[in-house]
Amino acid sequence: MDKVKQTEGAFYRSYIKRLLESVLTLINLIYYSLLILLVAILVKVKLDSSTIFKQERQG
């Protein structure tokens, strides 16, 4: 009986850990995406240049 209870507890602990890690990853992804977007906008406004480099090539 004790082994069954330990297994159930381990299952829920691993499930909650995975869920928490997924939520934190999503929050970080949104945060850093907005930060990169803000930097790109500031570069465009302050330096009046493109944040993405493009070059014409022959061929």
Q: How would you sum up this structure, described in words?
A:
With 59 residues, the protein is mainly alpha-helical. It has one domain. The chain is elongated.
Number of helices: 1
| Radius of gyration, CA atoms, in whole angstroms | 23 Å
Distance between the termini: 73 Å
- Per DSSP, what share of the residues sits in E-state strands of 2 or more residues? under 5%
Helix content: over 70%
Count of individual domains: 1
Q: Determine the structural class based on helices, strands and strand pairing.
A: mainly alpha
Number of strands: 0
Mean pLDDT: 87
User: What's the SSE pattern?
Assistant: H
Principal-axis shape equals: elongated
Query: Low-confidence parts lasting 5 or more residues at pLDDT below 50?
Result: none
Transmembrane segments: 29-47
Keywords: Membrane, Transmembrane, Transmembrane helix
List keywords for this structure.
59 residues; mainly alpha; 0% strand; elongated; transmembrane; membrane
Quick structural summary:
The protein is 78% helix and 0% strand.
Topology record:
Layout lengths: L1 H46 L12
